[in-house]
Amino acid sequence: MAIDRVPALKRCRSLGIEPAVVGLNKESKRQPRRTNKKVSEYGTQLKEKQKAKFIYGVLEKQFRSYYDKAKKMPGVTGENLLGLLERRIDNVVFRLGLAATRRQARQIVSHGHIAVNGKRLDIPSALVKVNDVVTIKETSRGNEFFKGVVESYDSLSTPAWISADAPNLSGTVTRFPNRDEIDVPIDEQAIVELYSR
């Protein structure tokens, strides 16, 4: 399996996004290089796709399959694409505040600490459905990491499409997210135009 080993801060700097978008509370000490280089339309579209892949931790083959699925869905393709990425279980765990970053959320899921509707789920790319209840497994709650999560848990940061239950460290997907509720700095139309070439 391919693994992205590029340091997160370096990737944030090259893509021009704030580290806070991916859950990092660090800032790069390096000054950005001044370049007057004109970027082509293709270059702009490619950068938007790279941003989306980096933020959600998805590689090209899987990202392309999300695009193909979004294209077949009714509605706007770009919005459908972002909606599918938001519905990934690792992203939902991150949105619930059970992990500091999406990478950490992915690890929590793949290590089997998350249950959906009472059943263990260890596939980070699985998509949640409406009324799915996402929670930390009972057997994992004694883990030192999750004890820390319990103490610092803040349900106020959860998006409107997820109903959080802070005392039980769980959340229910009440509906699918709208575009204006997805706070990632991505121009999804540029991605659609790139794949439509």
What's a quick, concise take on this entry?
The protein has 197 residues and is α+β, with helices and mostly antiparallel strands. The protein has a domain at 87-173: RNA-binding S4 domain (Structural Genomics Hypothetical 15.5 Kd Protein In mrcA-pckA Intergenic Region, Chain A, Roll). 41% of the residues lie in helices and 9% in strands.
Describe the structure.
The two termini are 28 Å apart. The chain contains eight helices and five strands, in the order ααααααβββαββα. β1 and β2 (119-120) form a beta hairpin. The protein has a domain at 87-173: Structural Genomics Hypothetical 15.5 Kd Protein In mrcA-pckA Intergenic Region, Chain A, CATH 3.10.290.10. The chain is globular and about 55 Å long. The chain has a five-stranded antiparallel sheet, with helices on one face. With 197 residues, it is of the alpha+beta class.
The proportion of residues forming helix, as a percent range, comes to 40-55%
Q: What is the CA-CA span between the terminal residues?
A: 28 Å
Number of strands: 5
**Remind me, CATH topology of the domain at 87-173?**
Structural Genomics Hypothetical 15.5 Kd Protein In mrcA-pckA Intergenic Region, Chain A
Please name the fourth-level CATH homologous superfamily of the domain at 87-173: RNA-binding S4 domain
Top CATH class of the domain at 87-173: Alpha Beta
Whole-angstrom Rg: 17 Å
Q: Look at the structure and give the mean pLDDT.
A: 84
Backbone shape: globular
Q: Secondary-structure element order, as H and E? A: HHHHHHEEEHEEH
- Give the name of the CATH architecture of the domain at 87-173: Roll
> What's the main sheet like?
5 strands, antiparallel
Strand order of the largest sheet: 2-1-3-5-4
Query: Count of DSSP helices?
Result: 8
Which ranges are low-confidence, i.e. pLDDT below 50, for 5 or more consecutive residues?
none
- Percent strand equals 5-15%
Output the structural class.
alpha+beta
